[in-house]
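From the shared-data thread, chain only:
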Amino acid sequence: MTEASEFLTPEDQKFLLQLARRSIAHFLKTRQLLEIEVDNPRLKEKQGAFVTLKINGELRGCIGYPLPYKPLYQTIVEMAVAAATEDYRFPPVTEEEMQDLVIEISVLTLPRKVKSPEEVVVGRHGIIISKGYNKGLLLPQVPLEYGWDRETYLSHGCLKAGLPADEWKRGVNLEVFEAQVFSEQDSD
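Structure, as tokens:
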């Protein structure tokens, strides 16, 4: 997803958002993952992605694969269900909540290591901060939603990794990635 030609079309985005919603609804009714085949070669490419769920603008779940483990459409099916039922920060989503749920998808580029925190561009880069066994990821839209500057963003990345907030000043492994982010709210 480093070139514009590789970005998802509006039709692809709409399909993936509908797929995420169908996957959650199917799982809540059957406790089974939705099985589906797609013909679109772009959606069969392996790509990292996160599914974020919100209700009334508040986070309700967010889980994803930062790396391209599976075809994109399968990643969306699995991560939509995981965001709805496995995010440890929230109780599982209920069928009653489905009507209020707003789904957002972030399709990721491959992470790349950066030499210095100054290379992080707020609003463009997602970050992965790691040191030892600790690792934390923040999507590129997060600092924009909270009005964070670069230092605040890096500090929250450290906290997400279970590290002291200023650990990035002492040296961490810092990777950046970009994301194509789209939401059901965008198509309203």
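The longest strand covers residues 58-65.
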